[in-house]
Amino acid sequence: MEQTHILIETTVNDLRCMGDPKRAVHSQRFFKTGPGQYGEGDEFLGISVPDIRAYEKAHRPWSVEVLTLLLQQPYHEVRLLALIGMTELYKRTRSGAERVAILSAYLGHTAMVNNWDLVDTSAPGIIGEYVHAHPEEGNALLDHLAASSSLWEQRIAMVANWRLIRYGEYEPTLRLAEKLLFHPHDLMHKAVGWMLREMGNKREDLLLAFLDIHAAAMPRTALRYAIEKLSPAQRTYFMAQGKSRK
């Protein structure tokens, strides 16, 4: 246990030394950390994502225990490191027990996966992979997360579909898009539209069928994201359908 705490302290200190105060100030603005904003109170060190990824790779192997403790740290970049490590370990391990431990740690600490970059880095490679491997339990988990009162758990559910789309599994995207389409937060409108767009890149027919039903009523941000890769004529048509939306 002492060795583990020394490793945690060393890792956090290393990242502190890598930080750039000017970048940290910019990140606090970019990730909306002010009072009443979605990232309220988050702390940044000011480290680029490529540098965090390089550090994670250089210091492998990571244990689930260490990554879980890093995920509980206050600094955003330390939590991002932990989530990158969890995602990479989930991909590389051949141990079913280790994957269960990663999934349990992730789901047990979703309160720390509390900004869109943290969600988008981890949800496809952990939750999406789990749903692909265990469709019945996984889809029940997606529905549970989508019904949460937490914006971030709801975004985890939606963005996990990015991996399922890669596998040609589209039903969860359509199901969750309908559940979350009228979410009050713009970040969910973006997530829903983004996943619909990714699905449409593979199955335009499914996207068009969804839009035929929902374009006239869906939030304008979600619509813009969803139609981004369609033809100019199609985009004009669907934007006209949704012209009454804000």
UniProtKB/TrEMBL annotation:
CDD domains: AlkD_like
Pfam families listed in its UniProt record: DNA_alkylation
Positions in coiled-coil regions: none
Listed name of the protein: DNA alkylation repair enzyme
Organism: Porphyromonas loveana
Native organism taxonomy: Bacteria, Pseudomonadati, Bacteroidota, Bacteroidia, Bacteroidales
